[in-house]
Every structure is written in structure tokens, then in C-alpha cells.
Amino acid sequence: MSESAVIKLICANQGSIPVAELEANGCFDDVRRIISNREKFVCCRSGGEHKVVAKTELRLCKAKVCQGCNNLHLCRKFLLGSCPFSQGRRQCYFSHELKSDHNVKLLEEHGLEDLDRTELCTLLLQNDNFLLPPICSEYNKGDGLFGECRDGDGCTKLHICEKHLRGDCSCYKAHDFHEPHPSKTLQARGVPAPLINTLKYVYTNKEALRGNRGNRGNQQHPARANAAYANSDDGPNKRPSCNTIAASSKTTEVTGYCFLEFKKINLKK
């Protein structure tokens, strides 16, 4: 099994997959060698299972007119499957051509050339913090309808229970992305209804990636990404500017996840 095949399998499985299931689809040693690549995979323990989450440094270009960059030139709403200009007479400002020369070059550089639009969407949603609103941390503090969130119903962040994303929770806070405030917030960001049903997986994976200490320096903070979107006046694609599985069982608790600290082991080829 190749690395690109592993990425495709994970992205077709809501962006993460149990290690045991992945091993069942390929050679044991090959799978463990492949997922030891921390630039493309994060291994964590969630819900009592060892899981692998797909990771990428590739992002979507947000400029209407780009002078050249290393980001995908693709319409954000087309990626999400909701661009109103896909079948209309008016032409979209942004490209709907996933396989353009520019995009193909980048996809190949990142080992993502085998992904279709839906699989690529899954991967980018959980990696590019600009594409989705962050969870409101103030909502998750205190009691009351809005917790400690001062913006209340006007908050542009998601009012969703963080504990629910990490496991089972029976508190009174919102656990469903279809509840009024989360639904309104997501619709304002152009997230189509079919995608909303998958967002628990997306945000759970985002938490796993955010908790991965080795990558924190490369992650855009969700609050800054949200502020950039709110202040944008150039449309939905605008940016502010254009593992080897453990032989050791040493673990670290991070935001409800148990991350494995790997020791290198020699694998027989």
C-alpha cells in the first residue's frame, strides 16, 4: 500500500481511521512505516482506539487575483459543494478546475493527486482553520444559555460543547450542529447542509491535529482565522495576505486525547 493510497483511504473515511482497520487493508509493516510520517499523519488515542488523522500543509488561496503562490487556486464554495455559480449563467470569480496545471502541480507535491473533490474537502476542512469557524471557548465556560460568551446570539464562533467532540457528554450545552446558533453560524460561512452532518468528525480531527505538539508552529490559530474572515471585503476566498506506531507506551494527555510519543524501530523490508 502506497502513502497516497493510505491518505485517500483515510480521507474517504471522514478524515481519520482506526489503526487496526488501516492495517487490515494493507501490509502491517508498510502501514506502520507510512503513518510514521508526521508531516502527513497524526496518531492519537480517541474513544478507546488508536487512530490516524490525515494532515497536510496545503491550503486554499483566498485572493481574487493571485500573483503566484503555493496554495490551491480553487473556489471555496465549489470545494464545499455549494457554489451558486456552478450551474448558473454568471461566472464565479474563483476557479472550479481542480485539475488545473497550477493545482495538479501542488497536489502532486503534497501527494494528494489521487483525491477527488470530496476527499480533498475533508482533508482541507480539518487542516485549514480558515474554512470553518472555531469553537467558542467562552460558550464552554460557565452556566446559562451562552455560557460566558459576551457576544451571545451574535457570536460568529460555534456554540458547540467541546466535551461532546471529545467523547460522550450529557450536559445541557449544544451537541448538535443543527441547533439554531451553530446552524446559523455555519450557514453564514457558506457551509452547505450535507456537510453539517459530518462536522463532528471534522472538529474532532481538528482537535487532534491542534493537540499535536510537533505541528503547533505551523497551525493558524482559529481565532485569528475567524477574525480574518469577518474583516474580509474581497469575498469568501480572501486571506489576510496572498510515526512509527509506538514501541513505547509513554503517553501525554492533550485536550482530551492521548497522543503517542514514538520511538523509532527498525522495520524489516
How many DSSP helices? 11
* Largest sheet strand order: 1-3-2-5-4
Strand content: 5-15%
Radius of gyration: 19 Å
Instruction: Write down the overall geometry.
Output: flat
First and last CA, distance: 13 Å
Q: How many strands, which pairing sense, and closed or not: the largest β-sheet?
A: 5 strands, antiparallel
* DSSP helix fraction: 25-40%
- Label the structural class: alpha+beta
Query: How many domains in all?
Result: 1
Q: What series of H and E elements makes up the topology?
A: HEHHEEHHHHHHHHEE
Number of strands: 5
Average of the residue pLDDT scores:
81
Catalogue the unreliable spans: 213-236, 239-269
Task: Please name the defining characteristics of this protein.
alpha+beta, C3H1-type domain-containing protein, flat, 269 residues
Task: Outline the fold blueprint.
Elements: H1 3-11, E1 16-18, H2 19-24, H3 28-34, E2 41-46, E3 49-54, H4 76-80, H5 101-109, H6 117-125, H7 162-166, H8 180-188, H9 193-196, H10 199-210, H11 222-230, E4 251-254, E5 257-260
Antiparallel strand pairs: 1-3, 2-3, 2-5, 4-5
Description:
It contains eleven helices and five strands, in the order αβααββααααααααββ. The model is unreliable at 213-236 and 239-269 (pLDDT under 50). The protein has one domain. The protein has helices at 3-11, 19-24, 28-34, 76-80, 101-109, 117-125, 162-166, 180-188, 193-196, 199-210, 222-230, and strands at 16-18, 41-46, 49-54, 251-254, 257-260. β4 and β5 (257-260) form a beta hairpin. Residues 74-99, 130-162 form the C3H1-type domain. Residues 210-243 are annotated as: Disordered.
